[in-house]
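Lecture 7, part B: from sequences to assemblies.

Below are the input chains for today's worked example.
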Amino acid sequence: SAVISQKPSRDICQRGTSLTIQCQVDSQVTMMFWYRQQPGQSLTLIATANQGSEATYESGFVIDKFPISRPNLTFSTLTVSNMSPEDSSIYLCSVGETQYFGPGTRLLVL
Amino acid sequence: AQSVAQPEDQVNVAEGNPLTVKCTYSVSGNPYLFWYVQYPNRGLQFLLKYITGDNLVKGSYGFEAEFNKSQTSFHLKKPSALVSDSALYFCAVRDLNYGGSQGNLIFGKGTKLSVKP
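Predicted structure of the full complex, as structure tokens:
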């Protein structure tokens, strides 16, 4: 199984600012996925990040709000831009056929 | 459309009793099915998956799940519940018609399992 780390583990941010979340994997993977888990809710896919190509966003998520980078096969970042309180969620990255998950980034926007 | 249903928001079980957490799915192609567990303030931990082969899948911490194609179900079971099993359980499906074996997962809304001593 892949070992996945995320930074930061949690943050409290002000409305209108942006936060970049990092996801690091201990092995090379083709596809990385970014999910959002709003309070008390299930997981919703934000986008799929392939190395060397543009991320593919799900309905309701746009690149301007959630820009993603995938510079190599072990690393990806997700930026939450121009944040509002509605963006308060846990953000998780996952990889692999089994989709092992990172520990998540808990974001609170005030 | 792909979907996963977990009909119970919460399941209450006494320690030592068997437990079942229900999951049904809807996909257009063949499914890959998964169960994950989430402890408070933690990420998701993989429990088990069904891809092909034996319909009864055994996973971590003594959990197992049975794939039933005719009923489109993948219920999670454990013969004897522990208090430490109390957590949030998510069922998920991957539709092989969308993205193949590397496609994303569709998650159910989760079932809170509470095991009392």
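Note for the exam: The two ends of chain B are 41 Å apart (CA to CA). Keep this in mind when comparing with the next example.
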